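Annotated sample (chain length 362).
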Amino acid sequence: MRATELFDSYIFGGLSAAEKTEFETRLKTDAEFAAAFDRHKTLLESLNQYEQRNNLKQILSTIHKQEFGSEAKIIPIKETFIKKHGKTFAVAASVAVFAVLGTVTVLSAGGYLLKQQGNAITDLGNEVTRLKYSQDAIIEGIKVAARKPAKTYAPANIEGTGFALNNKGYFITSYHMVRNADSVFVTNNILDRAPAKLVASDESTDIAIYKIDNIEAIKNIPFPFSFKDNASEIGDKIFTLGYPRRDIVYGEGSLSSLSGFSNDTTMYQISIPVNPGNSGGPIMDEQGNVIGLIRGKQSSAEATGFAIKSGFIKQIIDKLQDDSLKKDLTLSTKKSSLKGMKRSEQIKKMQPFVFNVMVYKK
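Output written by the structure step:
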């Protein structure tokens, strides 16, 4: 098979699973092959853009003929023409704009444009999902090759973030992620995949608390952050760590409101770009105090998220009936050991206590 045919087969889904894995491995190891593939993709994108421009021209030409007749000509506009016929041109342009808008309205009313757009978005989402599973399989394959004994795992139904309440193995995450979960596992840069059990939850505040079975990797590491008791202020600089993808991702922004969606006072509004997978992650102030837990985002607004305030996390723990569990979950409100450190050092100290949460459901 020629290289261009191989590239097309990969792009348009014509390879088997084994061939696809082999192809993607070669992309990572053969720089010349990867460069040729990138050039081929660029060519296809250029051809696609050219086709889209031609389609647009044809649509506009059809509208022009409908509104002005098949004999009407499109005349190039020059400076002298504008001076001489400026007012006439403005009127004609207005008519053309209304004609285009009218056509768009008719097509939208019939559902044509909306359906086309909706299908494109749906298809893209499906492709992203399949690509994610493929990438996860490659990453897992590389990890398997580097360690013994080899282990492979089925992809989780939902993935998100959680963060430790202490170094005893207790962590907190979003309840909406783990609702009706059959099993939950966690991992991070130092913790191998470990099962976790639910110990407490509160659906009204979207909080779930779990305990990790095996905490050998973190039990002797000093717990770095504290939980802020009092309210933060609008404009405070904040940051987060989370797992919108397999590697941990850092995000920063500011606290934009003291209430959340629909003026919910249990939440803050935050100006940090949050994505699927960030749910359950910590919101930190610059001194390294936890001020909240990421709840979600407003889909109609960019970089607008919401976080459950840390004070309500403390309230949920204080309401527990199990005194032994309540004692184990006592939150530190003392001075954070992260205070005064530069951000990269704060992140290093935090990473062992921020987890990629993998949720399995029947």
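Annotation: The domain at 158-362 is CATH 2.40.10.120 (Thrombin, subunit H).
Annotation: Residues 89-131 have pLDDT under 50 and may be disordered.
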